[in-house]
Amino acid sequence: MIDPKAIVHPDAVIASDVTIGPWTRVGANVEIGVGSWIGSHVVLKGPTQIGANNKIFHFCSIGEDPQDKKFQQASNSTLVIGDGNVIREYCSINRGTAHGGGVTSLGDDNWIMAYCHIAHDCKIGSHTVFANNSTLAGHVEIHDFATLGGFTGVHQFCRVGQRAFTAIAAIIVKDVPPFVMVEGNTARARAINREGLTRGGADRDTIVALKRAYKALYRRGLTLQEAIAELRCQAVENAEVRLMVEFIEESERGIVR
Questions:
Q1: Which residues belong to the active site?
Q2: What is the pLDDT of residues 7-32, one digit of tens each?
Q3: What is the DSSP string of 69-121?
Q4: Predicted local distance difference test score (pLDDT) of residue 145
Q5: pLDDT at position 141 over 90
Q6: Is the pLDDT of residue 75 over 80?
Q7: Interval 150-179 mean pLDDT
Q8: Is the pLDDT score of 204 beyond 80?
Q9: DSSP letters of 14-61?
Q10: pLDDT number for residue 13
């Protein structure tokens, strides 16, 4: 299943049914799980762990050194990729840095389209969608089921919450709360991600509760602390609003408003 034109380091650990295309280079300390498919002209550098049933398309750079001037080659630096991810052409995903925790990680079943970049120490959840040319700076968190529109740029240390949605070419410089849609440069909140909630199986009561929370946060002229106080009251009856409140209260950069 390994093309004879591929170059595989003897210290790489590759499951027996993995497919590796021609002119791909697999370095030392790279692990590839069962059922995975690696296209041609891919560079995989370790330490990198790739789980089961992943598809990595042609010309990707996976597990390369971080783009960080402080990075030392001998420092702790790893990339961990879960199961069932699709990573399309020309994507780059860098390993972590010692001062950022040492690990860049992706969960399961993410859909990463062409030309995306995931920088050092990013934490990507599961079931996310990155449209073409989405770009993350270092230390970014993308939570489960979030969707990044094409050409989205996310500043370092920002977080994008669960089932949030960014429009095309959005520039994110603060945290995006769960279930919120944002657009623009710099990004501003526009609405609740109703379509994403519906596709995720949210019932009418949940969507109504999140709309009410959104209005308190963005439409009624309340200060952030006033809005949080009201959301705490609403959160008593709804788990999704509780998640939104917790996300906002944990924010270090502040939220998009």
A1: 120-121, 138
A2: 999 999 999 999 999 999 999 999 99
A3: TT--TTS--EEEE-SS-EE-TT-EEE---GGGTSEEEE-SS-EE-TT-EE-TT
A4: 98
A5: yes
A6: no
A7: 98
A8: yes
A9: E-TT-EE-TT-EE-TTEEE-TT-EE-TT-EE-SSEEE-SS-EE-TT-E
A10: 98
In the chain, residues under CATH classification 1.20.1180 are 198-250
The dihedrals phi and psi of 165, each to the nearest 5 degrees, come to -140, 130
CA 249 from chain centre, in angstroms, equals 21
Determine whether domain 198-250 maps to CATH 1.20.1180: yes
Residue limits of CATH 2.160.10.10 in the chain: 7-139
Q: What long-range pairs does 185-191 form, CB within 8 A, spacing at least 24?
A: 187/256, 188/256, 188/257, 189/214, 189/217, 189/218, 189/256, 189/257
At position 231, the amino acid (one-letter code) is: L
- The structure tokens listed for 204 are 């009418």
For the domain bounded by 7-139, which CATH number is listed? Answer: 2.160.10.10
